[in-house]
Amino acid sequence: MRSGSSPERRERTPGDPQAKVSQRHPGRRPGRLSVVSLGPGGRSYIIPEALGALLSAEVVLGYKTYLQLISDLLEGKQVVSSGMRKELERCDHAIALAVEGKRVALVSSGDAGIYGMAGLVLDLCCRKGLTVARPKNGNDAEEDLELEIIPGVPAFNAAASLVGAPLMHDFAAVSLSDHLTPWEWIEKRLMAAASADFVLALYNPRSKTRPDLLETATNILLKYRGPQTPVAIVRRAMREGEQVLLTSLGSIPFEEVDMQTMVIVGNSRTYVWRGWMITPRGYLDKYLSQES
Q1: Are residues 165 and 272 in the same domain?
Q2: Domain match, 191 and 242 both
Q3: Which residues of the chain have pLDDT under 50?
Q4: CA 170, CA 6: separation in Å to the nearest integer?
Q5: Is position 85 within any domain?
Q6: What is the pLDDT of residue 251?
Q7: pLDDT value for 286
Q8: pLDDT in tens, 160-212
Q9: 76: left (phi over 0), alpha (psi -120 to 50) or beta
Q10: Among the listed residues 37, 56, 58, 50, the one whose alpha carbon sits nearest the alpha carbon of residue 100
Q11: Cβ(164)–Cβ(277) under 8 Å?
Q12: How far apart are CA 195 and CA 268, in angstroms?
C-alpha cells in the first residue's frame, strides 16, 4: 500500500540508474510500459496480448536480434535497437519514455520474467523511487507510469515440448552464465539440485568467451547421476534452424552447444522411449500398483 508521502525527486543524471527520471506533466495520464515476452521466436507462439501491446505502442525497444523477428509489426513506430549487454540502458530508456507519457513496448525473448527484462525494469523503478501502477482506467496524478508484464512461452517449455515430457516432475532452471552471477553460486545450485534429483533445465550453457562452462557443470552432475542419464539438447527451439538431439550425460557433444541452446538433464527416473524423453510423474506407480 502506498503511503501518503511522496518520494524525493532528483534530476536525472545520464548513466545513473538510481536517478529520478523527469517528472510527468501535471494532469496528463501516465504513459504505459509494456514488457512484452516474445516466446521462443515463432510468430504463432506470441500470445495475443503481446501482439496487441506491440501494435498499440508508440516506441518499441529491444535487442536487435529480437526486433528483427517482429520487424513487420514495427512500421510507423519509433524503434530503439541495441546490442548485447545494453540491458541497463535499454530498460532505463524505456522507463524514461513511459514517464514522459508515451506508450512503450520493451521486448524480451522467452518469458520476460525468466532471465528477462521484467526484473530489471522493476529494479530500476524501485531504485528511482517511482510510483508504478498496473494498467487501469482513469487518472491518478501520483503515478509516474503504468507497467504491465506480458508473459510468454519460456525457452525450457519450448525445448521440452520438442522432446516429449522431461519436465513432468520437479525441475530446476539454472543459468550457467557467470556474467552476472559468481560461478561459486552456480556451482552450489547445481550441486543442490542434482543431489535432490531435480530435472535440470540449463540456460546459457556455452559461449565463445566461456566455452568450458557446460563441461564443468556436467562433471559436477556426474558426481550425482550416472553417465547414461538422458539429456536433451535443443537449439533454436521453434525457430528457423531448429535442432534436437537426445543423448546422455556422459556423451554430450559440447562443441555443438551454444547460447541459443537449451540443455535438459533428466533425473534418476527419466527415460527415453522411441525418441521421446519422459520423466514419470508417478501416476502408473500409484494407480496401476493399486489394481494389481
Answers
A1: yes
A2: yes
A3: 1-15
A4: 44
A5: yes
A6: 98
A7: 86
A8: 999 999 999 999 999 999 999 999 999 999 999 999 999 999 999 998 888 99
A9: left
A10: 58
A11: yes
A12: 11
